[in-house]
Amino acid sequence: MVVCLLLIASGASLTLAFSPFYAWPVALVALALGVRQLAKLPGNGFKAGWLFGLGWFGAGISWVHVSIADFGGLPLIASVALMALLCGYLALYPALAFYLTKRFFAARLWPLALPACWMLSEWLRSWVLTGFPWLSIGYSQLDSPLQGWFPILGETGVSALLVALAALLAVSSDRASWLRASLAIAIAYVSGWVAGQHNWVTPHKTYQVAMVQGNIKQSLRWIPEQDAPTMKKYRTLTEGLWDSDLIIWPEAAIPKMEYLALDYLAEVDARAAQENTALITGIVNYNWESEEVWNSLLVLGKADSSDESGHYQYSHNNRYAKHHLLPVGEFVPFEDLLRPLAPLFDLPMSSFSRGDFQQRNLLANGIRLAPAICFEIAFPRQVMANVHHNTDMIITVSNDAWFGRSHGPAQHLQIARARAAEMGRPLVRATNNGITAFVDHRGQTISQLAQFEAGSITAPITTTRGMTPYHYFGDFLPGGLTLLLLGLAVARQRRSQH
């Protein structure tokens, strides 16, 4: 019983390592404690991993319950049960990693075997049922000395490195092994700090960028009577920003279908062109002929800096359609079965179509931006596919009003910051009610707006050129290194059996 409680508690404590708490040393200690209990709990390791995962996700993504309870239309007991079901499902992935490690390898070899098993389980978590890779443990190290490894190994590789160090610490049983583990941890963190001093990319141009945060209540976003006040509010908040090189509004800032907002879009397009700038906004586009709906970003005003007028027309190609949709929120799996069960499965705007995995960069006043809408920023391979050699910055827009005053929006920003560090590109993040922020190419926040306030923010953003090692090799580098460690573990296991 004590071992089970320690597994749940160690998993739950991981929440403190992530934003908004930033207690990054907790991650190493919590993982080491979890692996140590793996050795103590009888069985094949699956139960130990599942209990650890239950604590990890039960505490870490508790913010999901806010949207279920406030907007799902379910009684409290049903919303709690649904949340428990989600956490129980996500806990299957660390359970798989722990099972494979304990089933096939002696405890002394876990530091070599667990990183590969962990990477496999986390890859599955990012892919099965369209994926939910939230709260991957590498994100907890973005403000630690291991930050320097993000441009080299990516968040995926930092996760594997952290797991290896934790396992090494967990299996230490005498003074000599403790000293070896301490030395390895010191080397990893010091080398990460040293790597963080290196500039993998070079500065290119500096642009003045502005973002608007409307702070529209989620309960009002899709009420037709609120369309005009919302659109007027965004125009008003933008009035002092027209001298910027680029202005950004958040996800679905315009609450009308695109074909119903043509006059408004034409006015904004003309004003932006007149002011010698461009404006990017989120909007929903519905095609009557194909009956498809896209969660989109589109550019108004000047596409290229040499343009003399606006270029917007309905269905113009300087736009982006979201590819990675949020289950239940933007599409409903098995919808014929689930939609009649509860309002949660029949929310407004929950039947979107997918855009392509790889799309052209948005071109706004001569600035090239790689887009990611909301949930998509949690998928590094998709972001990587859309960052090219001439991409100036990453743009991500969101509406985190679903999650109230929970720590979900802070985690979301931390995930976005990791993409900037991995790609070596500055990132701009515009949201409806926070956290709207500018992030530099190292993943550090330049400035941000307070949550739950309507307002605007401006900053000079320096774009970059060049490629980080992670951008060039992707997950092949950390994947190859973990496979090498796994090969050593297999060889040593076989040698010990003969």
What's the quaternary structure here?
single chain
Flag low-confidence runs. 338-346
How far apart, in Å, are the first and last alpha carbons? 37 Å
SS class: alpha/beta
Strand order of the largest sheet: 5-4-3-2-1-12
Q: How would you sum up the global shape?
A: globular
Rg, Cα atoms, Å = 23 Å
Give the total of beta strands: 12
- For the residues shown, what is the average pLDDT? 92
**Count, helices:** 16
Classify the helix fraction into a percent range.
40-55%
Strand content: 15-25%
What is the secondary structure topology, with strand pairs?
Layout: H1 2-13, H2 25-40, H3 46-60, H4 64-71, H5 76-90, H6 92-104, H7 110-125, H8 150-170, H9 175-196, E1 202-213, H10 227-238, E2 246-248, H11 262-274, E3 278-287, E4 292-301, E5 319-321, H12 335-338, E6 362-364, E7 367-373, H13 380-385, E8 393-398, H14 408-423, E9 427-431, E10 437-439, E11 445-448, E12 455-465, H15 469-473, H16 476-496
Parallel strand pairs: 1-2, 2-3, 7-8, 8-9
Antiparallel strand pairs: 1-12, 3-4, 4-5, 6-7, 9-10, 10-11
